[in-house]
Amino acid sequence: MRDPERLRTAERRALRRYLRMSTSEPIPEFEFGSASVLQAQESSLRHIPIRLEQEERDFAEFIDGDTSGTVKWWLRNRENTKWATRIVLPTGRRFFPDFVVGVTNRSTPDSIALVEIKDDGMTGRLQADANLKKIRDQHEEYKNVFWTYRADQGLWARGRYDDGLNRIVPQGAFKIAEMVCLT
To answer: What is the rounded CA–CA span in Å between residue 126 and residue 181?
Structure first.
């Protein structure tokens, strides 16, 4: 009790013993609306889901437009569904990164990278306490989550946590090719 962080770490370790990763839960196509909406080349469902916020839609179009061959497929990770990829945080809460992306040459199960989209780095929503906790954690199998938001001139910036500032700060431009890396 004198060291709350140690207690949270112990709780998380205990929870992780009971977590199992499974790829057997099917992803229902109806979750994402009609396939007759905006078509997509790399989306696992071949269309851009209709239930996206503007920044998520713009990011989906950005990764769908990858011509380098890095993005094999992508999927909008729907929060609180049985099939969705999640991270159990030290608090016991679950974090559902916005996108699951199949990345050529990434050395994780099924070559998966996780991406979290935020509205922007200016309004303060990016710096919310919940986000400051989420960004410091990673998925047991898929490793780090790539955080991105719009920066200057509308370009996608990669965010990283700065321990000294206790803030999410830009780490340069978000580059699709960097999703191959585990950190």
So the answer is: 23
Distance from the Cα of residue 95 to its chain's centroid: 9
Specify which residues 71 forms β-bridges with.
Answer: 103
For residue 154, name the pLDDT band (cuts at 50, 70, 90). Answer: confident
CB half-sphere exposure, 129, CA atoms < 13 A: 1
Which strand ranges, in their side-by-side order, compose the sheet holding 71-76?
Answer: 71-76, 99-103, 112-120, 145-150, 156-162, 167-173
Q: Which of 164, 165, 146, 166 is nearest to 156 (CA)?
A: 146
The two beta strands, 167-173 and 156-162, are antiparallel
Q: Give residue-wise pLDDT tens across range 71-126.
A: 999 888 988 888 899 998 877 789 999 999 999 999 999 999 999 999 765 566 88
Q: Could you say which DSSP state residue 31 is in?
A: G
CA distance 75 to 98: 9
Contact (CB, 8 A) for 79 and 99: no
